[in-house]
Amino acid sequence: MNSENFLLSEKIVSPSYVRQGSQARRGHEQLIRQLLEQGKCPEEGWSESTVELFLNELAVMDSNNFLGNCGVGEREGRVASGLVARRHYRLIHGIGRSGDIAAIQPKAAGSSLLNKLTNSVVLDILKLSGVRSVASCFVVPMATGMSLALCFLTLRHRRPKARYIIWPRIDQKSCFKSMITAGFEPVVVENVLDGDELRTDLEAVERKVEELGAENILCVHSTTSCFAPRVPDSLEELAAMCAKHNIPHVVNNAYGVQSSKCMHLIQQGARVGRIDAFVQSLDKNFMVPVGGAIIAGFDAAFIEEISKMYPGGWALLQCCLVASTSVFVFSHERLHDLQEIYSILAEELKRLASAHGERLLHTPHNPISLAMSLDGLQATSDKAVTQLGSMLFTRQVSGARVIPLGKEQIINGYTFRGFMSHSESYPCPYLNAASAIGITREDVALCIKRLDKSLKALKKEGKAARSPSPLASQNL
Amino acid sequence: MNSENFLLSEKIVSPSYVRQGSQARRGHEQLIRQLLEQGKCPEEGWSESTVELFLNELAVMDSNNFLGNCGVGEREGRVASGLVARRHYRLIHGIGRSGDIAAIQPKAAGSSLLNKLTNSVVLDILKLSGVRSVASCFVVPMATGMSLALCFLTLRHRRPKARYIIWPRIDQKSCFKSMITAGFEPVVVENVLDGDELRTDLEAVERKVEELGAENILCVHSTTSCFAPRVPDSLEELAAMCAKHNIPHVVNNAYGVQSSKCMHLIQQGARVGRIDAFVQSLDKNFMVPVGGAIIAGFDAAFIEEISKMYPGGWALLQCCLVASTSVFVFSHERLHDLQEIYSILAEELKRLASAHGERLLHTPHNPISLAMSLDGLQATSDKAVTQLGSMLFTRQVSGARVIPLGKEQIINGYTFRGFMSHSESYPCPYLNAASAIGITREDVALCIKRLDKSLKALKKEGKAARSPSPLASQNL
Amino acid sequence: MNSENFLLSEKIVSPSYVRQGSQARRGHEQLIRQLLEQGKCPEEGWSESTVELFLNELAVMDSNNFLGNCGVGEREGRVASGLVARRHYRLIHGIGRSGDIAAIQPKAAGSSLLNKLTNSVVLDILKLSGVRSVASCFVVPMATGMSLALCFLTLRHRRPKARYIIWPRIDQKSCFKSMITAGFEPVVVENVLDGDELRTDLEAVERKVEELGAENILCVHSTTSCFAPRVPDSLEELAAMCAKHNIPHVVNNAYGVQSSKCMHLIQQGARVGRIDAFVQSLDKNFMVPVGGAIIAGFDAAFIEEISKMYPGGWALLQCCLVASTSVFVFSHERLHDLQEIYSILAEELKRLASAHGERLLHTPHNPISLAMSLDGLQATSDKAVTQLGSMLFTRQVSGARVIPLGKEQIINGYTFRGFMSHSESYPCPYLNAASAIGITREDVALCIKRLDKSLKALKKEGKAARSPSPLASQNL
Amino acid sequence: MNSENFLLSEKIVSPSYVRQGSQARRGHEQLIRQLLEQGKCPEEGWSESTVELFLNELAVMDSNNFLGNCGVGEREGRVASGLVARRHYRLIHGIGRSGDIAAIQPKAAGSSLLNKLTNSVVLDILKLSGVRSVASCFVVPMATGMSLALCFLTLRHRRPKARYIIWPRIDQKSCFKSMITAGFEPVVVENVLDGDELRTDLEAVERKVEELGAENILCVHSTTSCFAPRVPDSLEELAAMCAKHNIPHVVNNAYGVQSSKCMHLIQQGARVGRIDAFVQSLDKNFMVPVGGAIIAGFDAAFIEEISKMYPGGWALLQCCLVASTSVFVFSHERLHDLQEIYSILAEELKRLASAHGERLLHTPHNPISLAMSLDGLQATSDKAVTQLGSMLFTRQVSGARVIPLGKEQIINGYTFRGFMSHSESYPCPYLNAASAIGITREDVALCIKRLDKSLKALKKEGKAARSPSPLASQNL
C-alpha cells in the first residue's frame, strides 16, 4: 500500500481509521529503515509479522516474481512445485553471479539485499558477542568443516610450499577431516591434563613449530567451543606464537558465538597476536535448520580473498533466507541469557552426581559444556556406561553424550586412542551435558530427572548382577 | 490415524464413510510404500498433498519433535523462530553424523530416511534420463563448483604428485575456479570452430597430455551442458583418451540431466572409456531453490570416497527436504517434455532472425541452448549489442544473454580473451536463449515479442544515429 | 518498502537493480489501485502473490497487529493458537460493530476495507454474469437457507399480517426449512411435466394467490438453479404476477451465478415485474470453503434494511477473507468457460445412455444439471437403481445423484411424495450429473468411465439374478 | 506411515531408530485416541504439531482429497485458489447435508468427525467451566445474535401466540436486535442501581409477566457477561420465576464461558428453576477469528430441535476447523488463569484512579469487566471524557471504552436514554476495562501507563483552558 492507495482507501472506509492503519504500517517500515540504514542487530528482536512482511517485500523485487517476467535462461527461479515457492516466500532465485558469491545478482535485487543485510547483521552480532574489532565476515553456504577447508585452500595460494597444519587435538571428526580434505597433513598435538581440565600443550606446539620449520606449516588450527573436560584452546598464547613465527592462525569457533568467553578469547588473541580467520556454524549459533557457516576475520582483504575462492554463487540464498528469519528476531537481550541456565545445569548436575557417588568435573574454563564422572557406574559393570547411553536415548534425552574409556578410532589413516575424550588416557569415563542456545529450564529439569532414574536402574541391575541370589536376577 | 483410531471413529460417524476415508488414506500409503520399497521416481508424480503428508510423517520420527524430548546437547534441532520450523515441516534436525555425510543420524530417523530416499530417487532419475549404468550418487549440500573441487581434492589423495587439470575451455567462472580452489593449475585448451559450433580440440588435448606427462595430470575436466555455439565436449573421445593414458576424468554436467543427449554422452563415455565422476546442479536440473549438487559415478567405491571426504554432516537436510518436494512430484513423463519447447524456440528464433537480417547459428549438437547472430545489429552502432542486453533486462526478459565481441577478463590471474564466447575470436556477436526445464510456451512467446520490439527500436535508433538530421537524434 | 527504504536499499545493492525491483512492486500496487478505485472484478485474475501481498498489507492496518497495541476489551483479536493467526493472514479482528454488519470497525481498518471491496467486487461479478441492473448486495456470514430466512424475517416487518409463502416445489431441504424457521407456512405448488422437463405451474400459483389473498402472502419464493429434469422457475411470469398483486418476490439463486441463463432470468424478471431480493451461495458460486451467502436486489434501500436486520457483526471477516482470495483471482474470462464442459458432459452422457438402452432426458432449460433415465436398469432388478448409487460412491464418483421412484419424506410435518424428484410422480428413475464451476474434462471422462463400468456390472448381475443357473448366482 | 511402511523403513535406516520414530508417532496417536474415545478437552493442550497432524489426517478422509476422485455435483469441494485449500488444510468440503446441520456428510467423513469432536470437546469445556449438568450443545455457524434469534424462532413453534420477550436492559445492539429480527416485541426492563452496581430489577420483571400474561410471553432473555457497572442478571431468581410461570428462559452468555462465576450462575439457575438454552460466542470464549456460536441447554431434545431448525448445513466446517485448532490446544489449566490478571487489573486501576482523583467503581459481581469513574475528568471540561476515548484510540489502547453521560440512541424504533451505560441515568461517566481470555500482564501494564499519560495530558489541557493566561493556551 503506497500513499496513493492509502488515499483511495480513505474514500472507502473512514479516513481516520485508514490513517491509523497507515501509521501502523509506518511502524514496520521504521524497523526496516533502521535495518537498511544501520545493518545492525535490532535492539528488540522483530516480530514474526515484520519478518514476513519484509521477506514478502524482498521477494517482490526479484525478477522471478515480476508480473510480466519471461525467462529463457537455464534457471530463472523456476520451481517444480508451488509448495516450495511458497515455503520460501517466493525467494527462489539465487544470489551472487556465477563464480562470485559476493557479486550482486541483477535478476534478484531483493535476494541480494537480503544477503548483504544478513552479512551485516551477523557481523554486528559477532561484535556484540565480544569480538569487537572483527573487520569483516560472510555467510558461506557450506558446513563448518568445509568452510575451514576453504580457509586452508585459500592459505595454500599464499604459502604454496607448506604441508602441515598444527592442530591441538579435539575429538570431532569434521574439523579433523577439513585438513585432510584440503590436502594437508594434520600434526596432532595431544592436550595436557590440568586438574580435571584438558588444555592446550603450548610447549608441544612450540616444539612442533621448531621441528617442522615455520615455512612448512600452513597454519595453526585451534578450537574454542568443545565438550568438557577439554577447554577452549589457549588462544592468546597460540596467537602470540603464530605472530612470532609468522604462521597463519585459523580458529574453529564452531558454536562459540553464543559464549562471551569464547568470543573474548578470539578478541584477545587478535589483539596480542595473530588470528587470520575464525569460522563458526550458522546452524549452531543461530538455531537455523540450514547448513552454513560464517567466516570472519580482522583483515577484510583476506576475508574477501577467501570469499573469492568459493567457486559458486547460487547456493547462498537459502542460508540467508533462513538466517535472516533468525538474526532479525535476535535482540541484544537474547545474547545474554545463556549464563543463567548454565549455572542451573551445573548446580543440578553437581547435586545429582553427589547423590550417586559421582562428581561434576571441575572445568571452569569451559563456558558451555559440563561433564560428570561415571567412575562409580563403571565399577558396577563393564557395560553399564554404554548402557547408560542407550537408556538416555530411549528415554528421549538427546545430546547427553556418554564417554567410555579406551575407545580407539581410525580416521583417514590416523589412529586416535581414547577417542571422544580428547585424550589418549583420560582418568575416568563421564557424561556430557551442555547449556547451549535455545535450551530451556524444562530441558534441564527433565534431563536430570531421567538421568537420575537411569542411574538408579543401572545400579540396581549392577547389584543384582553381582549378587548370587537367583531371585534377584529375575527382577531384571 | 492408525487402525485403532479408525475403529473408534466408526463409533462417531458412519462406519461405511470412515472406511472409505481409511481406504483413501491407504491410497497415499500405497504411494509411500512403493517409494520405500523401490526407491524410484514415481510413474506419476505425487500430488502436493501426498508430499506434505509424507514430510509431516517423517518429521514426527525426528527426536526434536518427540512429545517428551529434552535436549542438553549443542544443537538438538532448536529454532530461533517458529516461523522457520513450520516452513521446514519441523524437519529441523540435521542428517549425518559429525564428519560423515552418509552416516545415519540416530536423533533424526525421519530426516535420515528422507536423505536415503532422495539419493535413491535421484539415482533412478539419472538412469531414466540416460545414464543407465550409473552405479551410485549422492546429494551434496554445496554448489556445483565446490562439488567439483571436492572431486579434485579426493583425486589428489590418489595422485599426490599431479598438479595439472586439462580443461577444454568453457566460459563459466565457477567451474574454472573449482580447479584453482582445489589448488591445481588449469591447462586451458581452446575450442575449435566447426561451422558455427565450437567443439573440443581433441588433438590439442592429446598434445597437452604428452607435453605434461600423464602422471602429472590430476584429471581431464570436461563439460556437457553449455551455452551455444559451444557444444558439449566430445565425451566419448575424451573418455577413451583418459582410459588410454590412465588419467581420471571428471565431467561437469551442470544442467545436463534435463537433456537426454547430454546424459547419453556420459553413458557412452563410460562405456567406451573412463569417467570417474560426473557432477550436476540440484538447483538447475530439479528446479529447487537450494544450493546443492549431485556427485555421481560408475564406481560406487570411488563415489563413497568422495562422500567421505566431505567434512561435515549437518548441512544436508535442507537439500534433501527441498529436493524431495521436487523429485517426488517428478514423473516419467516430466522427463521428456523439453524437446518440444526447444523446437518451438528454435523455430521462432529462426523466423525472428531472418526478419531482422540475422540468422540462427547452426548448433545441432547443443540440445538446450540456441544462439542468434547479431552481426547486423552491431553494424548499426558499436554500442547496439550491449544496449540490447540492457533493453531486454528492462523489459523483464531474463536469461537472454547478449555476447559482444572481444571482451577480456582476468580470473585468478588467467586472462581469457573473447570472454563469454568460449573462444578467443568467435566470428560474430550473438544472443543466447535456452529451452531449460520449466520453461513454458508463454515464456517463448513473450521473449520473441520483446526481442522483436527491442531490435526494431535499436535499428530505428541506429538509423537515426547515422542520419545527418539533427532532429532525429533528439528523438533519442 | 516505502520510497525512503528503496532509496536506502540503493546504497546497498546497485541502484538500477533496486529501481527495477521498486518498479515491480509498483506493478502489484497498480493492481491494488485499480481495485480500490473501481471496486471491480479484475480483467485478469490476480496471481496468488498479489492476493497474499494485499492481504498482508490489510492485516498490518488492523489494530491487533499494531506493533505497540495493548487490549483491555473483551476480544481484541486474540487467538488461542498462532497457527490460526498465520492461516488467517493475521486478519483476526472482526468487522462491523456490535449489531451492525455494515458499520466500519475502527479497530480493523484493513478488514473493513476488505469487506467493502469484497461486496463491491461481488456486485460487479453479479452484473457481469447477467444481472446488469442489480443495485446492491452484501455478503452475509450465514448459509443460503438462513439468509433466505433473514429476507423473510425482514419482510415480516413490512407485512406483519402475512402468514404464507408461495413456493413452487423444489426438493431441497434447506430452502424449504428457511420458511419454517422464519415462522411462515409454506404453500407448496407442484410442478407440471412438460416433455421431460418439470416447470413452474403458473396457473396453480395464480390460483393460490387468489385463494389465500395477496395481503396474507408474505412473498413468492422461487428458484433458479436446480437439478434436472426440474428447470428454473418461470421468473418473468412470476415476477409479473407479483407486481400485479403487489406481493414481494424472493429468488433462491443458490448456485446460479455461474450460469448466464439463470442470471438472465433474474434480470428479465426484475425488468418486467418484481424481484425484491435474490440470494446465492458464496460457497457454491465462488468455490470457497466457507459458509456464506450473497443477498442482492434492485432496491438498495431494501437490501440495506435486510442487512440492518442481521443481529451480529463480528462474524463477517472469515467470509470476506476467504471470498476475497477467490473473487480477486476471478477474471472476466473465468466467467465464461462453463458452457463448453456442459456440452461435453451432455454429449458423453447421451452416448453412454444410448449404449445402455437409456436416454438423456431432454431438459434444454436447465443450464447446469443433466439427467439420464434409468428405466432399463430398474427393469433388471428392483434394487439396481439404489445399488448404482452405492457403486458410484464406492468408486469415488461424487455428486452423481441417483433418483429412485416413489420415495416419501416428511419435513417439519409436511409430506413430500416422490422426494428428490421435485414431483409426486415423475415417469422414470434417473441419474443426475452437473457441469458446475470448477469441473474439469478429467472429471467428466472419469465419471463416464466409472458409470459405464457400474452399469455393465449391474446388468451382468441382473441377468445372473434372473437366470435359473445356480452357477451364475455364485459369481456374485 | 502404517506399520508396513515402518517395516520397509527399517531396511533403509537403522531399525532401532525407525522404531523410536514409530513410537514417537504412537505418542501423537495416543492423544488422538483419547480424543476419539472420550471426546473431552485434553488434560494438557495439544501441541501445534499434533493439531496439524490430526487435521491433515482428517483431510485425507474427505472425498475431495481422494486421489482418484471425480466430481459431477454442484460443489464437490472445489476451490478457486490453491491458496485457500492449503490454508484450510484441504478441509474444504462442507459438513452436514442439505438442510440438516447434524447429519453426517458421506462425502466428508473427516470433516464430519471434526464436527462431532468439536461439539463434544466444547460440551466438556462447558462442564469444566462450571455448567456441570449441561446435557447437549452444538456449534452453529452464525454470530451470537443470530443464534439467539434462532432460539426464539424455535420457541415460536412451541408458543405460536406469544409476542413478547422480557429483557433486562443491556446496552449491546445485537442481542436487542435478535429479538426484533425474530419478529418479537422486546419488553425492556430497566436495571436498578445497587451501590455502584446495576442489577436485575426482579420485581419489575415479575410485574411485566403479570401485566402481559405468561402465555403471551415467548421467553425471558437474560444476560450474564456484560460491561461493569452492570452485573450479570440474577439468574437463579429469574429461572425460578420462569419455572413458576412456565415461561421459557434463554440466556445470553456471550463471553461468559471464561468466567466460572457466569457459568456457576447458569448451573444454579438450571438447578433451581428453568433455563431452556444458553448461547455463547465461539469467537470470544475460544479466541478464534470466525463467527460462530454455541447453543447449549439442559434438555437434549430441545437443543436438537433448535439444531434442526437451522436451514443449512454446508456452512459449519470453517467454524469447526478453526474452533478445533483452539479447543484442542486448551487445557484444564488454561481454564483457570484469568482470575489472576483480573486482580492485577483491578489493583492497578484502583491505584491509578485514586492518583487522579477518581475511583474504581465497586462492582464485585462482575467477574470480567471493571469500571473507573471519570467524574473529575468531566469536571475539567465537557469534552474531556470523549477526548479521552480518542486519545486512547490513537495511543493504541484497544477495548477501553469511555462512557459519557446522557447519550441517546434509537434502535429499530426503540429509544435508549443513557445508551452504553445500561441505565437511563447512571450517576457518573466512566471508563471500562476488562480482563478477558488471552489478556497478558503486558496489556495491563501498557494500558495503565497510557491511560495515566492521557489523563495527565487532559488535565493539563483542562487547567489551561480554564486559566486566563494566554500563554498557557498556546501550549495546546
Automatic annotation (TrEMBL), chains A, B, C, D:
Q: Which organism is it from?
A: Oryzias sinensis
Where found, per UniProt?
Cytoplasm
Q: Which domain of life is it from?
A: Eukaryota
Protein function: Converts O-phosphoseryl-tRNA(Sec) to selenocysteinyl-tRNA(Sec) required for selenoprotein biosynthesis.
> Which reaction is this enzyme known to catalyze?
O-phospho-L-seryl-tRNA(Sec) + selenophosphate + H2O = L-selenocysteinyl-tRNA(Sec) + 2 phosphate
Its protein name is O-phosphoseryl-tRNA(Sec) selenium transferase
Keywords carried by this UniProt record: Cytoplasm, Protein biosynthesis, Pyridoxal phosphate, RNA-binding, Selenium, Transferase, tRNA-binding
Cite the record's note on assembly.
Homotetramer formed by a catalytic dimer and a non-catalytic dimer serving as a binding platform that orients tRNASec for catalysis. Each tetramer binds the CCA ends of two tRNAs which point to the active sites of the catalytic dimer.
